[in-house]
Amino acid sequence: MKLDLRDVVLGAAYGVATVGASVGALVAASTDAYAQEGQPAAPPAAAAQAPAAQQSGVAIRRVVVEGNQRIEAATITSYLLVRPGDTFDAERIDLSLKTLFATGLFADVQIAQQGTDLVVSVIENPIINRVIFEGLRTLDEEDLEEEVQARPRSVFTPARAQADVQRIIEVYRRAGRFAAQVTPQVRELDQNRVDLIFEVDEGPVTGVRDINFIGNEVFSDRRLRDAIVTAESSWWNLFQSNDNYDPDRLEYDREQLRQYYNNRGYADFRVVSAVAELTPDQRDFFITFTVDEGIRYEFGEVRVQTTLNRLPEDLLRSAVPIRSGEVFRGELIEDAIDSMTYIAGTVGYANVQITPNIERDRENRVVNITFEVDEGPRVFIERIDIVGNTRTVDQVIRREMRVNEGDAFNRVLLDRSRQRIQSLGFFSDVTVEDSEGSQPDRGVVTVSVAEESTGELAFAAGYSSTESFLFDVSVTERNLRGRGQFLRLRASSSQQRQQVDLRFTEPRFMGRELAAGFDLYSLRTDFLDQSSFENQSTGIGLRASFPTSDRTSLGLTYSLIQDDTEVADLLVDHDNDVTTSPIDQCDPNYTARSFLCDQEGSFLTSVVGFTFNWDRRNEPVRATRGFDLQFSQDVAGLGGEVNYLRTEVEGGVYYGLPYGFRALFRGNAGYIAGWGGDDVRINDRFFKGGSSFRGFDVAGIGPRQIVVNNTTGEIETVGDSIGGNAYAIGTVQLDVPLPLPESFSLGSALFVDFGTLGIVDSASRQTVSIDSDSSLIVDDEMSLRVAAGVSVFWDSPFGPVQFDFAQPLQYEDYDRREEFRFSTRTNF
Fold first, then answer.
1. 76-80-85 Cα angle (round to 5)
2. pLDDT at 644
3. 36 or 220, which is more confident?
4. How many CB atoms lie within 10 A of CB 820?
5. How many helices (H) and strands (E) does the chain have?
6. What Å distances lie between residue 316 and 121, 307, 312, 338, 347, CA to CA?
7. Is 67 among the domain residues?
8. What are the φ and ψ backbone dihedral angles of 100, each rounded to 5 degrees?
9. Least confident among 26-30, 410-414, 490-494, 719-723
10. Which domain holds residue 394?
11. Measured distance CA(433)–CA(435) in Å, rounded
């Protein structure tokens, strides 16, 4: 039979096992149920706990246990405070009764005297056979199984079931479903077993109908709503995830409001109250914040007091980003402490203590600050604890630490350690905290990480303005076996590229600080629209890299590549979007493309190279301070049939600005030259445009074949791009935060791209007379190109997307311009 425990919980209208359910009623309900199956019904609780009248002075001859099924009689008697030979003592028997009830093993216990026997009658609580959840739509059973205490083969008690009901309701409340109802039921089985069933009515998501502010005069309700995380529900915003009431999030919103005002001069601001009221239909909440804004302050006098010999006050004051007369911003105080701590760490003061003394002058509306700098006690690291890594082995994290047990405590090195662990890409969050050790001069460092998924099976299809239709499938594991190894198998296809590759990297080869790996790939590239040739590359590459200092590293590579180049039989007229009649460009009588015909066929290239990296960024993903630099060289000709030397350099400088703005400059340049009598083959040259130079199409700039009129010099036909041996491109960009909630996942940037591409070998600069009126030439001016525009970034549910709106400002007439493009987003 299936018994609804709700029917006996005080008979209340809220009898769906919500707050206020009576545990005693649940006990009674369970007892009634067992009576229906032929077991003796228990007497009322008061009677059950009152032992029968004893005969004083009579000794207990034996203890008799009745009604037990699973529990041994010896186990039951072990809880009693009386033994055979003892006299009947009402107080001790009463304590024995309470002790048996306290075990939670019994639904009812009676202790009675029958002559000289002490009879203990028990009704055992049943054993849970299964825990079943019914009615789940939005949550999985696994989510609730982690919360409830009831487990198969554990003892069932109505009180524990009721406690689990409250836990389930709390889970749904955290998910924004405050109208959820849970009904516990038991289905009785043989051998005193039961199935515990939780029938769940999830109800609708309890949204936020309105967010109101009381007491705000400086900032409007709209601006304050944007400052908090909780958002009002709206039918049109399908991707909104914070439009439900969450008490924990409400507390976070209070802090967000305080920071919002505090960073705009209102140092006295406080949130008087934050109240959430459920609407009568129990579907939404009204949230009301009552605030006291206070007055607006400016920074007054800023002083630094220090007794440290190697840290003069002037040096520390120069690191403080606070100027008198500026609007007060609380975050600048923390920035000042971080900057001074970093400077102190660079000169050997690892444990410097900086205390800001803040004095508010309400009459003059200024805040005076004095930073007191002391060396602090010398502390050594007693132990480093790693917590939160459920999959990644400890050693992967520990080897990124810049300090070890026994080292002096150093905040600069700990911060660097946190950055290195975060840059692994295995964790969504990394925190490094310190606490007191076993002695005053000992400290414990705790590294807390939150694992994120590192394995991915991805299927993608889309459309790009440069690649047309795109198809991609890949299997990637960035943390193979939890040891930090990288493995990827990928296949992709588009109008211009078809590629299959396998990549593997071991970050600590042979246990040393040496990353090693290999690449296998097959790549077919279609340049028919740009340069009238196709190329098939099949290769294998070996890689190794190692740090040369804390901020620099050196990588070594070797690649063996088989190229098969095929020249097209069509000469494309890019201006009129028509083609000429088929022409065999390699016919000895047609010399216009003879330099390509010399490169047609199969060529084996053996390349050895190195890459030097120098990274001084404060963050690996979105840097707001510092720079990075990469210098690489590749030499082809140590074996194989192709000889060249290629050199490239790339770097960037980053600067964080207030209110989420960020400025950056990136530049890259390269040069390739043949040696041993070889010219540079067209598939080894540089082609720029598209994502590498916004405002221009792929291979849209640089040397190009054109047909000109012999008399006027005017361009009659624009032909193929032939690439260049040298390039230099720079980007100036300002990241601009959009005034939209974070849930929209939108960002933007203003940019200016500028640069040039040119210099080809003499064999590629042939001038061919087509007829008496026109000639085919190669224009290789290497002139400056400039484009400016706006980029919009969207972390869409289907993957990151970048939209570029660009206007070429300086260009050549034969360049292929592109004012709009969208593609996979490129992060700087």
1. 115
2. 94
3. 220
4. 11
5. 14, 38
6. 80, 12, 7, 11, 12
7. no
8. -65, -40
9. 26-30
10. 380-451
11. 7
> Tokens in use for 71?
């529990």
Which residues are bridge partners to 708 per DSSP?
715, 775
The pLDDT tens digits of the residues spanning 491-537 come to 877 767 788 889 999 988 887 889 999 999 898 877 666 666 777 88
Which residues are CB-neighbours of 805 under 8 A, at least 6 positions away?
A: 789, 790, 791, 792, 819, 820
Domain assignment present for residue 747? The answer is: yes
311 and 386 in a single domain? The answer is no
Q: Are strands 533-547 and 552-567 parallel, antiparallel or unpaired?
A: antiparallel
398 shares its domain with 325: no
CA distances from 699 to 524, 531, 722, 818 (A): 17, 9, 9, 11
- What is the CA 146 to chain-centroid distance, rounded? 24
The whole-angstrom separation of Cα 577 and Cα 420 is: 52
Q: How many CB atoms lie within 10 A of CB 325?
A: 8
Cβ neighbours around 445 below 10 Å, total: 22
Tell me the helix, strand and coil percentages in the chain, rounded to 5. 20, 45, 40
Dig out the tokens for 326 from the structure. 């500026």
Q: What is Dmax (Cα atoms) for the chain?
A: 139
Measured CA to CA in angstroms, residue 125 lies from 51, 105, 162, 404 at distances of: 21, 6, 15, 54
- The model's pLDDT over 352-370, given as tens digits with 9 standing for 90+, comes to 888 899 999 999 999 999 9
Token pair of 370, please? 């004095």
Q: What's the pTM value of the predicted model, to 2 decimals? A: 0.53
Mark whether 306 and 354 lie in a shared domain: yes
Q: Are residues 288 and 302 in the same domain?
A: no
Q: Nearest Cα to 627, choosing from 612, 614, 643?
A: 614
391-397 contacts: CB < 8 A, separation 24 or more? Answer: 391/451, 391/479, 391/482, 392/426, 392/427, 392/449, 392/451, 392/479, 392/482, 392/484, 393/482, 393/483, 396/424, 396/426, 396/479, 396/482, 396/483, 396/484, 396/507, 397/421, 397/447, 397/449
Question: Is 442 exposed, middle or buried, given 0-12, 13-18 or 19+ CB atoms closer than 10 A?
Answer: middle
484 backbone φψ class: left, alpha, beta (φ>0; ψ -120 to 50): left
CB 285 within 8 A of CB 279: yes
Strand partners, 121: 66, 110
Using a 10 angstrom Cβ sphere, with 0-12 exposed, 13-18 middle and 19 or more buried, the burial of residue 672 is: buried
Element (H, E) at 36: helix 23-36
Using N-to-C axis directions, what is the helix angle for 247-262 and 330-346, rounded to 10°? 80
Give the CA radius of gyration of the chain: 38
pLDDT of 372-415, one tens digit each?
888 777 778 889 999 988 888 888 899 889 888 888 777 778 88
Whole-angstrom distance, CA of residue 501 vs CA of residue 431:
36
> In which region does residue 388 sit, left (phi positive, over 0), alpha (psi from -120 to 50) or beta (all else)?
left
Q: Examine residue 743 and state whether it is found in any structural domain, yes or no.
A: yes
Structure tokens at 163: 């406690």
For residue 345, give the CATH number of its domain.
3.10.20.310
pLDDT in tens, 7-23: 433 333 333 333 233 32
**Does residue 550 fall inside a structural domain?**
no
